[in-house]
Specification:
With about 450 residues, the protein is an alpha/beta fold. Helices cover about 45% and strands about 15% of the residues. It is built from 18 helices and 14 strands. The protein has a six-stranded parallel β-sheet, with helices on both faces. Helix 6 links the parallel strand 5 and strand 6. Helix 1 crosses helix 3 and helix 10 runs parallel beside helix 13. The radius of gyration is 24 Å and the shape is elongated. Bound molecules: uridine-5'-diphosphate-xylopyranose (UDX).
């Protein structure tokens, strides 16, 4: 099986590298963060992703997975090099590609034999061709006539279910016109290829754009239903019934039609902004993508208004917030809509008691524990003596709360269910006021 190296052991690099080792490839994971390498070598995964620690341990043990900070050694030992470093948003929305180009430059300056460079990081259209030119230029300067193919291979993993997503993908996208690189990648993903997963072979530009278009479309779907949730509230309609009905139309589909507090995470916000920036630069603005971004900002602000309008004022009131992560089954709070909701409520003078099963540590990077935002050790301690309860992330453990107990410890029996996880009639039967998203209050 193929010898592969992964440069960058963040979420994407670690999940993908580990799963490819599980497919039988020999994988070396490289990261410049020595502490991360040392703990990974002992099987300690630096973030929460269900099942990943078992996968890492299993493949470390069978010798197909190794971790190092020696980039040169890893490059020399591998024919295929995946670049999976971060591409964070710059202040203008564009993707910051420094880490990607630094990795490509280092590789070009040090390779001595044929390689395939696979760009896994999400990069703007044209980046792989730019990397290709950079690599060729450096190889020419070095007087080396060796073949280095640059391939685009975007990822579509969802946090929280990434191992399932990796082993059951809808498609594998490979952007290259090199027949030998296509063949090599088929071998790397042999298990999926044999399972008849659709392989989409396209040119590099199309491959790069597929990733952005995929995420932007899903984000647009979420923003669409979120905008309609506001209208539902105004006209007395129910957004859940509406979503169920339109989702039955096979041309629309039922997924990604759950109204909520706005989308978040490491992909949708960043990728929609990068796509809008890219399109403007190409003098072909994407109005729907721009509207998607604006609608998402509005939805988060609308959640704060919903709470303040209902309570009259939140100044000096204590509010329990259940859920900090942008979705359940992750400890990731990056671009979580809860960040904006917290910010909005703090600005209006609320005191917050917050709880999340996994995201508390990461949230404290943004908001340290203080007298205005208190990190509690359970959903019930957060609710104790609070003026209202706000459910912001649909963790399983919040789906079956003890409402008799909550009723006795809350100052006022008001629940804001920003993920629509409860049946309003059930909650009202316990004497609570129930406020959902796009449902009649
Ligand atoms: C997403 C893409 O799904 C994945 O293919 C890509 O590789 C990375 O980005 P992820 O960010 O892990 O994955 O989460 P996802 O499950 O797609 O949800 C994104 C956001 O949309 C979350 O904040 C989620 O709560 C929100 N969402 C999703 C809704 O509000 N309603 C929905 O119906 C679906």
């Amino acid at each position: 099986m193929a010898k592969i190296c992964f440069v960058g052991l963040g979420y994407v690099g670690l999940v993908t590298g580990t799963c490819l080792a599980d497919f039988g490839n020999h994988v070396i994971g490289v990261d410049s963060d020595k502490a991360r390498i040392e703990s990974l070598a002992q099987g300690i995964v630096p973030f929460y992703e269900p099942g990943l620690d078992d996968y890492v341990a299993r493949n470390l043990e069978n010798g197909r997975l190794a971790f190092t900070d020696d980039l040169l050694g890893a490059i020399n030992a591998s024919r295929i090099i995946f670049i999976a470093v971060g591409t964070p948003s710059s202040s203008d929305g564009s993707a910051n590609l420094d880490a990607v180009f630094n990795a490509a430059r280092f590789i070009a300056e040090h390779v001595t034999d044929e390689k395939i460079l696979v760009v896994k990081s999400t990069v703007p259209v044209g980046t792989c061709s730019d990397i290709d030119r950079l690599v060729r230029g450096i190889l020419d300067q070095r007087g080396l006539a060796i073949r280095v193919d640059v391939v685009s291979n975007p990822e579509f993993l969802r946090e929280g279910t990434s191992i399932y997503d990796f082993t059951h993908p809808d498609k594998v996208v490979i952007g290259t016109e090199s027949a030998s690189a296509q063949e090599a990648l088929k071998q790397v993903y042999r298990v999926l290829y044999l399972n008849e997963t659709p392989f989409v072979f396209v040119n590099r530009e199309t491959s790069e754009l597929i990733k952005y278009a995929n995420n932007a479309f899903l984000a647009m779907k979420v923003s669409f239903i979120n905008e309609l949730s506001g209208l539902c509230e105004k006209v007395g309609a129910n957004v859940q019934d509406l979503a169920r009905a339109i989702g039955r139309d096979g041309r629309i589909g039922s997924k990604f039609l759950h109204a909520g507090p706005g989308y978040g995470g490491s992909c949708f916000p960043k990728d929609t902004k990068a796509l809008a920036y890219m399109a403007n630069k190409a003098e072909n603005p994407l109005k729907l993508v721009e509207a998607t971004i604006a609608a998402n900002e509005d939805q988060k602000a609308r959640m704060v208004r919903k709470i303040t309008d209902k309570l009259g004022t939140v100044t000096g009131k204590t509010l329990a917030i259940l859920g900090l992560t942008f979705k359940p089954n992750t400890d990731d709070v990056r671009d979580s809509p809860v960040l904006d909701i917290i910010e909005g409520l703090l600005e209006k003078g609320a005191v917050l008691k917050v709880f999340d099963p996994m995201g508390m540590k990461n949230m404290q990077v943004y908001y340290p524990h203080n007298s205005k935002i208190m990190y509690c050790n359970s959903e019930y301690s957060a609710t104790e003596s609070s003026d209202a309860l706000i459910i912001t992330t649909e963790w399983h453990q919040f789906r079956n709360l003890d409402f008799t107990r909550l009723g006795s410890i809350l100052k006022s029996k008001i629940i804001f269910d920003l993920r629509n996880i409860y049946d309003p009639a059930l909650i009202r039967s316990f004497g609570f006021e129930y406020i959902g998203v796009g449902v009649i209050s």
